[in-house]
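[agent] plan:
  1. take the single chain provided in the ticket
  2. run structure prediction with default settings
  3. attach structure tokens to the ticket
  4. add a short note for the reviewer (M.T.)
[agent] executing step 1
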Amino acid sequence: MQKDYSLFFIRHGKLLLPYKSHNKMPFQILADLAIEKLNPPIDKIYTIKLIKKISKIIPFDKLDIIYTSSSKRCLETSKLIKQFIHQKLKKEIDIKIIYELKEIYFNLDKIYPKNKNFNPKYLNNNVLKAMAKIDDKTCEPVNTVSYNRINKIFKKILKIRNKKILFVTHDFIMRVIEIYIKNKGGKRIITYKGLKKTDRNKYLCGFMTDGKLSKFAKLKTRATINKIISK
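[agent] step 2 finished; step 3 output follows
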């Protein structure tokens, strides 16, 4: 099936932090991560295990280039994938930073003034609500700023013929990219309801499409990740 796809989007590797998940992180840790005031490295051992698994799903041997966000966690993930491809496939692949792949900006200190009503269980939904608002000051507006930078990415890559590209980026921007692909690049209002229908992308999970945005499929590695966690 992968032969029909040429564009692969995955989330970066797991952060090297003493928490099992974002739901276990203190508020200020989450807030500082969101604005990259805190920029920890990734857990390389854990991430390498996931790379081995996704290499059975994404055709690493056919990849032409890796496009990555400029964030530390995305760059480190990309370099580990590049290293894996070199060691296992004896193939060199370039990494190129695409600034438009950065995570959607949101400020938790403004979304939750003085931590008021903060509950990590509802964090994801509250960020999605802020993203969908037209004039919200707590978050990058997805219908203007986010859409425009995503459109800029696809205008470039859709001109490239017969290339297989891996994108390493972040969960919230991936959810907007998912809607963009499903709309085949058409400009439509992105709503909270639409964002909520997208899947939350676990570490090194994501989706794939073709050069015409005519296909869409999830990169299903969740069961694999659960097996790794249980070991």
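[agent] step 4 note for reviewer: Residues 223-231 have pLDDT under 50 and may be disordered.
[agent] ticket updated
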